[in-house]
């Protein structure tokens, strides 16, 4: 099932590219295990886990070399994402008073910056 091309308009290729990128990201991010976020995980540890999953998913469909190549690509991405996530967790937390101050700046009915919908 796919969205009808005429409905996407002249930005069709751009929007489809975004969709495929997101689907790829969702597929790859399924390999990010919570245990990676609480330890100093290494590439070989991630590769081992990813390869086991890829080997199970692909079975005999692909040879070991292909599965290792795909596992390597996914593992590098997973390691990169884990580093980004753990670094972002180290950011300074915003205090309750700072959050209230920011909400006050937005006026009576603050809205989501992404959707434009008012908060309930």
Strand percent estimate: under 5%
**Shape assignment:** flat
What is the SS-derived class?
mainly alpha
Order of helices and strands: HHHHHH
Descriptive account of the structure:
The structure is a single chain. By secondary structure, the chain is mainly α. The protein has one domain (7-105). Helix content is 65%, strand content 0%. It contains six helices and no strands. The chain has helices spanning 5-8, 12-29, 34-37, 43-58, 64-89, 96-105. α4 crosses α5 (64-89). The two termini are 34 Å apart.
Secondary-structure topology with pairs:
Elements: H1 5-8, H2 12-29, H3 34-37, H4 43-58, H5 64-89, H6 96-105
Helix pairs in contact: 4-5
Task: Give structural attributes.
mainly alpha; 65% helix; 120 residues
Task: Explain briefly what this protein structure is.
This protein has 120 residues and is an all-alpha fold. 65% of the residues lie in helices and 0% in strands.
């Amino acid at each position: 099932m796919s969205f009808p091309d005429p409905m996407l308009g002249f930005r069709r290729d751009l929007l489809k590219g975004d969709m495929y990128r997101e689907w790829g990201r969702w597929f790859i991010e399924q390999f990010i295990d919570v245990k990676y976020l609480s330890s100093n995980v290494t590439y070989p540890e991630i590769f081992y886990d990813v390869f086991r999953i890829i080997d199970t998913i692909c079975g005999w469909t692909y040879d070991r070399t292909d599965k290792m190549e795909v596992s390597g690509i996914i593992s590098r991405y997973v390691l990169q994402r884990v580093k980004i996530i753990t670094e972002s967790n180290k950011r300074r937390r915003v205090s309750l008073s700072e959050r209230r101050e920011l909400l006050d700046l937005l006026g009576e009915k603050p809205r989501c910056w992404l959707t434009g919908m008012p908060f309930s």
